[in-house]
């Protein structure tokens, strides 16, 4: 089955969009992790 | 082509920044030998995903998927490559959770195999793991050296020495903690840089419409999802990558480094999800280069660089230099620490009750030895493709029996070893790389079938799986998987009194770390 022009474009731009979405999700996860670590460190200072 | 001095300057700047970040992050922590080789329960979901993405995505992503697309079967081959790269990550979701359950204090794949099976299977798995990881390391170094020679005429030994030297500094100092932290930073740069580069190349080549039209009229089989050679290539790559990935200690370390099972599941899932489109894009650029007739005299392995050179201005090639350096750095630090950690974890069993400081020194010394060997091999520019394929075949013939014991108490050492060796023999019988030499053997040579990678890898995995299952059914033994936890303990717990007269390392947090 030969991939048509529309499907080819969808594959290329869809792949690029998928990477961008995962990257944004990853940024959110990393930011959450960093905030949790900061909160935990602050908590440890208050209650050593 | 970019000026050599400029490319070298950018390379050194990127490596110096990574080294500074890795060392600075490690300095803030009191590192025990446990931190150095396992960083246990320290990586949340985002960090687990980021370190898996960076450590798994080496300089090969700029060569192999594009080569598959341009040289081995177009989209069908690229699709197989993409799926093959994601399957091991998905597999490790299940394997990883089991490992953490049965080996809560585990560090390495060899600890599992020694505890579960015994010394013979341990020796076999150790051989495969070290062979595979060292070949990967050498191949990564060689790929980076080739890439910088292609875009900026940098002599290969300089590339290998600079990359190996800088990575050694921060990995030798901060171990897995430094590796995971720099992986996270590298992912945050690599993903957008790769995405923007690929998008710019697609636009520079005239957009998807023009590319598709050119491929459809010149090489329509490149767009054929049912192209049999491409599907066969994709099929063997799935088995090859899955098999060899199981023996990548870097993956096992990250299983134990995940903060909890949820972080492990989500982290591995995110890495798998992003791997597929990344490989697809790299492969599609190879398909585009071949379809647009850009290849000329260049081999398919540099198809992506040919597409970049055709689509982007010369200054943009500097971005490729940064990409190459980051990609190879992220896998090199993982493999330096991975190989060193396997031996260090085993030293605690081999040596008579070593203290923590001895293990720390051993881990660092091993990292130096691995780095020097990798630089020496990478600087030669050897083609290690054939050895890489052999390492893949060893993995393909062994990974199912190897993991079988994690799911079944009936699997025995004799059964899985027999199954693995039988799978390897079947794989070698079909293995095209050595076919010429093997058919010359007396008696058996004339009986050998024709060479084919898909038959070789599918045969190796299929036969070893069937025999492993059969041996388990015939076995009377019942291994208690819960007993594995008692076989493996924290390396901090092994320490007796430290040499400066302090207390044993498990007496308190202060003594667990070696302040540097």
Automatic annotation (TrEMBL), chain B:
<dbReference type="InterPro" id="IPR038377">
    <property type="entry name" value="Na/Glc_symporter_sf"/>
</dbReference>
<dbReference type="InterPro" id="IPR001734">
    <property type="entry name" value="Na/solute_symporter"/>
</dbReference>
<keyword id="KW-0812">Transmembrane</keyword>
<comment type="similarity">
    <text>Belongs to the sodium:solute symporter (SSF) (TC 2.A.21) family.</text>
</comment>
<feature type="transmembrane region" description="Helical">
    <location>
        <begin position="75"/>
        <end position="99"/>
    </location>
</feature>
<feature type="transmembrane region" description="Helical">
    <location>
        <begin position="453"/>
        <end position="472"/>
    </location>
</feature>
<feature type="transmembrane region" description="Helical">
    <location>
        <begin position="157"/>
        <end position="181"/>
    </location>
</feature>
<feature type="transmembrane region" description="Helical">
    <location>
        <begin position="268"/>
        <end position="290"/>
    </location>
</feature>
<keyword id="KW-1133">Transmembrane helix</keyword>
<feature type="region of interest" description="Disordered">
    <location>
        <begin position="492"/>
        <end position="516"/>
    </location>
</feature>
<feature type="transmembrane region" description="Helical">
    <location>
        <begin position="45"/>
        <end position="63"/>
    </location>
</feature>
<keyword id="KW-0813">Transport</keyword>
<feature type="transmembrane region" description="Helical">
    <location>
        <begin position="302"/>
        <end position="328"/>
    </location>
</feature>
<feature type="transmembrane region" description="Helical">
    <location>
        <begin position="6"/>
        <end position="24"/>
    </location>
</feature>
<feature type="transmembrane region" description="Helical">
    <location>
        <begin position="227"/>
        <end position="247"/>
    </location>
</feature>
<keyword id="KW-0472">Membrane</keyword>
<feature type="transmembrane region" description="Helical">
    <location>
        <begin position="188"/>
        <end position="215"/>
    </location>
</feature>
<dbReference type="InterPro" id="IPR050277">
    <property type="entry name" value="Sodium:Solute_Symporter"/>
</dbReference>
<protein>
    <submittedName>
        <fullName>Sodium-solute symporter putative</fullName>
    </submittedName>
</protein>
<dbReference type="Pfam" id="PF00474">
    <property type="entry name" value="SSF"/>
</dbReference>
<dbReference type="GO" id="GO:0005886">
    <property type="term" value="C:plasma membrane"/>
</dbReference>
<feature type="transmembrane region" description="Helical">
    <location>
        <begin position="120"/>
        <end position="145"/>
    </location>
</feature>
<feature type="transmembrane region" description="Helical">
    <location>
        <begin position="415"/>
        <end position="433"/>
    </location>
</feature>
<feature type="transmembrane region" description="Helical">
    <location>
        <begin position="361"/>
        <end position="379"/>
    </location>
</feature>
<feature type="transmembrane region" description="Helical">
    <location>
        <begin position="385"/>
        <end position="403"/>
    </location>
</feature>
<dbReference type="GO" id="GO:0015606">
    <property type="term" value="F:spermidine transmembrane transporter activity"/>
</dbReference>
């Amino acid at each position: 089955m030969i991939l048509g022009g529309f499907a080819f474009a969808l594959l290329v731009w869809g792949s690029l969009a998928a990477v961008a979405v995962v990257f944004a999700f990853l940024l959110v996860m990393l930011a959450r992790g960093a905030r949790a670590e900061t909160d935990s460190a602050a908590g440890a200072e208050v209650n050593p | 082509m970019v000026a050599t001095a400029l490319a070298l300057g950018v390379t050194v700047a990127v490596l110096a920044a990574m080294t500074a970040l890795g060392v600075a992050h490690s300095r803030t922590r009191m590192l025990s030998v446990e931190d150095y080789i396992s960083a246990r329960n320290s990586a949340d979901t985002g960090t687990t995903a980021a370190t898996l993405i960076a450590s798994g995505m080496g300089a090969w992503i700029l060569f192999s998927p594009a080569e598959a697309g341009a040289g081995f079967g177009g989209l069908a081959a690229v699709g197989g490559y993409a799926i093959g790269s994601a399957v091991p990550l998905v597999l490790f979701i299940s394997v990883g959770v089991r490992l953490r359950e049965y080996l809560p204090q585990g560090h390495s794949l060899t600890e599992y195999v020694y505890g579960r099976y015994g010394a013979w299977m341990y020796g076999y798995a150790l051989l495969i793991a070290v062979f595979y990881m060292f070949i990967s390391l050498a191949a990564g170094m060689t790929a980076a050296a080739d890439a910088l020679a292609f875009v900026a005429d940098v002599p290969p030994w300089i590339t290998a020495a600079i990359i190996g030297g800088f990575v050694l500094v921060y990995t030798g100092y901060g171990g897995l903690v430094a590796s995971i932290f720099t992986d996270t930073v590298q992912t945050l740069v690599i993903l957008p840089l790769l995405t923007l580069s690929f998008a710019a190349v697609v636009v520079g080549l005239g957009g998807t419409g023009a590319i598709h039209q050119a491929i459809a009229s010149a090489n329509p089989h490149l767009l054929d999802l049912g192209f049999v050679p491409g599907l066969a290539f994709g099929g063997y790559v799935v088995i090859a990558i899955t098999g060899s990935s199981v023996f990548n200690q870097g993956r096992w370390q990250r299983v134990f480094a995940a903060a909890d099972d949820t972080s492990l599941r989500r982290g591995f899932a995110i890495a798998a999800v992003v791997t597929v489109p990344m490989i697809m894009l790299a492969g599609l650029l190879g398909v585009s280069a071949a379809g647009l007739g850009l290849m000329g005299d260049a081999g398919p392995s540099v198809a992506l660089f040919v597409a970049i050179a055709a689509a982007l201005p010369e200054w943009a090639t500097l971005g490729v230099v940064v990409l190459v350096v980051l990609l190879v750095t992220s896998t090199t630090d993982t493999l330096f620490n991975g190989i060193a950690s396997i031996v260090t974890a085993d030293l605690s069993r081999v040596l008579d009750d070593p203290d923590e400081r001895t293990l720390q020194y051993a881990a660092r010394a091993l990292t130096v030895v691995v780095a020097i060997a990798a630089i020496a091999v990478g600087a030669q520019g050897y083609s290690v493709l054939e050895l890489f394929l052999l390492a893949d075949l060893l993995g393909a013939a062994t990974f199912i029996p190897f993991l079988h014991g994690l799911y079944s108490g009936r699997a025995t050492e004799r059964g899985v070893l027999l199954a693995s060796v039988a799978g390897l023999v079947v794989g070698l019988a079909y293995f095209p790389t050595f076919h010429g030499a093997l058919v010359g053997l007396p008696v058996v040579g004339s009986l050998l079938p024709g060479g084919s990678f898909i038959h070789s890898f599918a045969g190796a995995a299929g036969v070893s799986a069937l025999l492993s299952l059969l041996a388990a059914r015939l076995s009377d033994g019942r291994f208690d998987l819960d007993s594995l936890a008692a076989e493996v303990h924290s390396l901090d717990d092994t320490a007796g009194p430290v040499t400066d007269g302090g207390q044993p390392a498990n007496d308190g947090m202060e003594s667990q770390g070696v302040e540097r």
